[in-house]
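Researcher: We are triaging several targets before committing to wet-lab work. For this one, the compound of interest is fe (ii) ion. I'm pasting the protein sequence and the ligand SMILES. What I need is the predicted three-dimensional arrangement of the protein with the ligand bound, expressed as structure tokens, so it can go straight into our comparison scripts without reformatting.
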Amino acid sequence: MKIIHLSDLHFGTEHDDLVSRTLARIHDASADFVIISGDFTQVATSKEFEAARRFIDDLQLPSMCIPGNHDLPVHNLYERFTRPYKKYKAHISEELTPSYQNGLVDLIGINSARRALPHWNWANGAVSYAQRKALAEFFADTPAEKWRICTMHHPIHKIADMPIDVTVFGRKRTLQCLHDLKVDLVLTGHVHHAAFDMIGDEQHKTAFISASTALSSRKRGHENGFNIIEIDEENLHVQMLNYEAQGFVETSAHSFRKSSSI
Ligand SMILES: [Fe+2]
């Protein structure tokens, strides 16, 4: 199964040229599925959401989408508090906890964006007790041989060279929960920085993959790019691509074998 992992499209700040080049590169990859880990827009306007929807349709792939902090109304506080996901649901997806299953993977998305937080920066995120419970229920019947995959917008792991500080409420409990549930792979965005980390112990290791911003001109020291993930029964291989002067180039690649100790 070949999965495209895109994040932080940020329509409203996109380069038109990069949109068409990214679509072309994804079409070339002949993938099976796309995961978009949040921040479809810059300030959550209808126009930005419409552009994001056109892009998703143009991918011509089955997709899983979850919101990011930029997908909640920014300028209209009344709407932010009363109907935070109205536009997201209208244009991107009705489902805030989407899931997908086939013979190889059990995949779930969690919404880590919040309309407000007990922190000066509401761009940060949270994972609640109820969301950890939803993860546990979702993976309760997953057979040992299948890949357990979770996506959320905010990284809950420590990324080396993280370009911004990120606070995620419930971070430690969620890391423990993912470990206890023997989740194999977590896909995140938000920091506009591609990275691969393995976290765990002898019993189980979870791979955390972060994606750069696919299309935004706001590049926190990292080029635009996305990840291509290939999974078979036992192995996972991820290619991290950056867009540079000559086109998309592979900047790093990582492989690992599924933990078989469930
Ligand atoms: Fe974000």
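Researcher: Any quick observations?
Model: Residues 39, 68-70, 153, 190 surround fe (ii) ion (CB under 6 Å).
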